[in-house]
Amino acid sequence: MIIRSRIVVPMVGEPIENGAVAIAGNQIAAVGRYEEVRTNHGGDVLDLGEQILLPGLINAHCHLDYTMLRGEIPPQRTFTDWVRAINARKAALQEADYLTAIAAGLAEVQSFGTTALVNLEAFPELLRRVPRPALRTWWCAEMIDVRGPVRAQEVSENLRAWLQSRPATLGGIGLAPHAPYTASAQLYSEAAALAQKQNLLLTTHLAESPEEMSMFRDASGPLFEFLQSIGRPMDDCGGATPISRLSRSQELDERWIVAHLNEITESDFDLLARGRKFHIAHCPRSHAFFGHTPFALRRLQTLGFNICLGTDSLASSSSLSLFSEMRELRRQEPSVSSREALAMATVNGARAIGQAASLGGISPGFRADLIAIASVETERDVFDAIVAFEGTVSWMMVDGKKLDLR
């Protein structure tokens, strides 16, 4: 088939007026001006009219489990108070609540134009009861061993068995040691070894809050006291930043997506400059919710890090819209252009999940993951118009199949 639209935004090259995309199966066969594509390719024509056609968005960090917590936890005095608050909410929830939350979260990210996402799943045992989503979803088992042992090998085997039982599932699986303050160095090492052997995605939270910094560098502060009170061994605290502490036991490389990375000292920057380059998932609205230290976007980019966008969870954000994340990013970082913001939600996200040659753009050979949004006749730059878009998308295709957005 051929899809025609007023503007096509391929991400590689410039936007195409009166553009078209030829689809063959689940792949893009051609992209260009409508007349050229129609001349060289057969098939039915779907005319989207006065819309902007662009690649599906990629959410590099979210927690669908907590979709039911929208607006339930106001900003707290400390990050540790927020951790206590979300733990209290979770204690009252049942499996059915989480299944409902996951379904609602998948529907919401889809409505806002996300076609691929990395979800940190706190309860991977629930996946057998989750209907196969239409979206490309990387289910990353979140692992915490602060209260008891966790066998990464067992978690990985269960994930792989589940995925093999659902051969039509789009996306993949991964392992997610939660954070250095909740996951041991041994758990990180086991996860990394398994991921290398089995070609799994890896993701974690790191250097998110000043309290995490105080815990590891100073062996003090609210987070230190809270974790000590629940029995966590604290002998790894004192004299090192979260980044330097983790780097002593685990090399972070291109297989890792690291969320947040807000608290970075000069010695950390020296360490990051010398080390291998991982991917960083920045969540602008969650960052604003907590009032974290300003994110060192430009400095990290200069060091060669690939920075993509995520929504985090609805326990610290108001929606699962990457359009809203792009707008908040530009509010926080005025030097970021709309084109760059969109790249962080498409091209950079694809690179982070190891799909740079198949997702995040509209090019021959790429998967046919596309969305369309209303185009308003103004003098506004097309990328500015995309980032300014509010509401839900009007049309979506994933893996060459049109999705029902009603």
Could you tell me the CATH topology label of the largest domain. TIM Barrel
User: Which architecture name of the largest domain does CATH use?
Assistant: Alpha-Beta Barrel
| Helix coverage percent | 25-40%
Helices, by number, come to: 15
Largest sheet: 8 strands, mixed
- On the 0 to 100 scale, the average pLDDT is 96
What percent strand? 15-25%
The N- to C-terminal Cα distance equals 23 Å
Supply the number of structural domains.
2
Please give a structural write-up.
Strands 1, 2, 3, 4, 5, 14, 15 and 16 form an 8-stranded mixed sheet that branches. The protein has an 8-stranded parallel sheet with strand order 6-7-8-9-10-11-12-13. 35% of the residues lie in helices and 22% in strands. Helix 12 (322-332) crosses helix 13 (338-344). Strand 15 and strand 16 form a beta hairpin. The chain has helices spanning 34-40, 79-91, 95-111, 152-164, 185-198, 210-218, 222-229, 242-249, 266-274, 284-290, 297-302, 322-332, 338-344, 347-352, 382-388; strands spanning 2-8, 16-24, 27-33, 45-47, 51-55, 57-62, 114-121, 136-143, 171-177, 201-206, 256-260, 279-282, 306-309, 370-374, 395-398, 401-402. With 406 residues, the protein is of the alpha/beta class. It has 2 domains: 2-55 and 360-402, Urease, subunit C, domain 1 (Roll), CATH 2.30.40.10; 57-352, Alpha-Beta Barrel (TIM Barrel).
